[in-house]
Structures are given as C-alpha cells and as structure tokens.
Amino acid sequence: MKRKRDFHQVSPAWNVAFNLIAGIFAIMCVFPFLFVVIISFTEEKTLATDGYRIIPKAWSLEAYQYIFKTGDTLLRSYGVTILVTVVGTIVSLLLIALYAYAVSRRSFAYRRFFSLFAIFTMLFSGGMIPTYIVVTQLLGLKDSVWALILPLAVNAFYIMILRTFYITGIPDAIIESGKIDGAGEFRIFTTLVLPLSLPGLATIGLFSTLGYWNDWFNALLYIDDPNKVPLQSMLMRIESSMQFIQQNSANSSISLEILQNMPQDTARMAMVVLATLPIIFAYPFFQRYFVQGLTVGSVKE
C-alpha cells in the first residue's frame, strides 16, 4: 500500500530555496541603510573622484567630527528628543486607548457622535495659523516641551485602528464576565481589556514613537530656545548652515580651502545615521507583541 504524501512537510530543496529568497529579500531591505553608513565613513574627496563605493578607498570620520563640533548641543538635542518621544508615546497611548475603547462599546450612548467627530478631524483640520494661536496664546506653550508633545498626542487614524482592534479582538464575553463579577467600566478596561490589547497598543505605540522621533516641524514653529531643540530640527539647522555657507561662499570671508574640506554628502549621510540608528532599537521591543496578535482574543471554553 502506497504511503500518502504529507503535504505539510516541505522537501529540503524547497526549504533551501525559501531561505535563499527570504535572505535575499532581507539583504535588499538592509543594504540601503548599510550603504548610507558606509558613505558616512567615507572621505569626502574620494566621493568626487571615485564615486559611491561599497568599499571606499579612504575611510574618514570627518563627517562625524564636523557634526560633533556642536559639542553638548547634540547630546542635549538627543535628550530632548528621547524625553519627547517617551513622554509623548505614553500620553498618546493613554488618550487614544481611552477614546477608542469608549467608541467601541455598543452601550456608550454617544458612540456614533464621537466616532464621526474623530473621522471629521481626519478630513478637515483647523489649519496651521489657528493651531499656532491655540498652542502659543491659549495654552501658552511657546518654548515648552509640551508644545512638541500635545499637538501629536491624539491621532484620529490611530483611534480608528485601535477601535477596530477592540471590536474584533476583544470578545464581548470577556467584558460581560467582568460585569458579572461586579467590575466597573474602568476596572474592566485596565484589568481585562488592556492586557489583551498589547498587540494593538504596540502597533499604535510604534507609530507614535516614529512620529515623535521624526517630528521637526513643531520645533520649527514653537521652539526658539536652543536648549529645547530636538534632534531632527537641530540636524536640519546644521544642514541649512552648510548650504548657506556653500551658496554664499563667494561673498563670505571663508577661505576656499576650508570650504573644500567641509564635508557635504558624507555629513548628510552621517545625519541620517545619527537620526535613524537609535530608533532602530525600538523595533525589537514592539516586534514580540506583533507575534502575540496571532493568539490573543480567543475565549476559552
């Protein structure tokens, strides 16, 4: 009697092929960033003569030395960005989680109104000038770290994502069991809903973290104090000063030798590395919660 073929087993040849395809795809994703890192450590003069090479003819730290000439300013901007990112992500998760849970409950009388209100803010906004007046005059947050946190704290799109997760991923039986035990809405939310919502919260937390880390526009509007300038804004100011020096070199007192030795392309790549490398470490922290999303939300019989 012939043995039936088990379709769940993959032959070694197919296994090797799948691993090769996955490895090639991973290299294609990682290589651009690695190439940027290599260029940032390349000598500026060799870029003009030899172009961009995977293995440069001459290695140099001049790009990083040029950026780190700012001294404590760079470290201070890192501190401001880390503070804004951590506090902003916590505040954003708290507000979005509470709002999304309220509009996901069928027993909430004003569920439809607040859902439409959130969707309306996705389609229409007050504009930059009214927002600036509210933040600087009504709230008085000019030159305050909170001016970098509060404008990005609530995102209607994230509310809709988390609302959908609550509806589809949190069974009504769990909430009903909490009510049978005499728990109130807030206790049900903190003890039952939040532990099961870690994958959804991790997704929103990652989006919020990236938003706060990459934000530079709010600092341009609300921050004049150099001690409160975040990283992205400070790197943009360095690049703007480099462009200003290059464009006005003919009318300035800067010598031609200094201008030629000033890193341009390598300094830009170094800025990308300095701005991107720390946030990469946030992905492994959130990744494990994405895997849990395959198993949470079920009700045990």
What does this structure look like?
This protein has 301 residues and is mainly alpha-helical. The chain has helices at 12-40, 44-50, 62-67, 72-104, 111-123, 128-138, 146-149, 156-169, 172-180, 185-196, 198-214, 217-222, 231-247, 256-261, 265-280, 282-292. The protein has one domain (71-292): MetI-like (MetI-like fold). The chain contains 16 helices and no strands. The two termini are 41 Å apart. It is a multi-pass membrane protein. It comes from Cohnella rhizosphaerae. Belongs to the binding-protein-dependent transport system permease family.
Outline the secondary-structure elements.
Elements: H1 12-40, H2 44-50, H3 62-67, H4 72-104, H5 111-123, H6 128-138, H7 146-149, H8 156-169, H9 172-180, H10 185-196, H11 198-214, H12 217-222, H13 231-247, H14 256-261, H15 265-280, H16 282-292
Helix pairs in contact: 1-15, 4-8, 4-11, 5-8, 8-11, 9-10, 11-16, 13-15
CATH class: Mainly Alpha
CATH superfamily: MetI-like
CATH topology: MetI-like fold
Shape: flat
Q: Major beta sheet, specifics?
A: none
* Portion of residues within helices: over 70%
Proportion of strand residues? under 5%
Annotation, overall tally of beta strands: 0
Number of domains: 1
Q: Could you tell me the mean pLDDT? A: 81
User: Would you list the SSEs in sequence order as H and E?
Assistant: HHHHHHHHHHHHHHHH
Look at the helices and sheets and give the structural class.
Answer: mainly alpha
Which second-level CATH architecture applies? Orthogonal Bundle
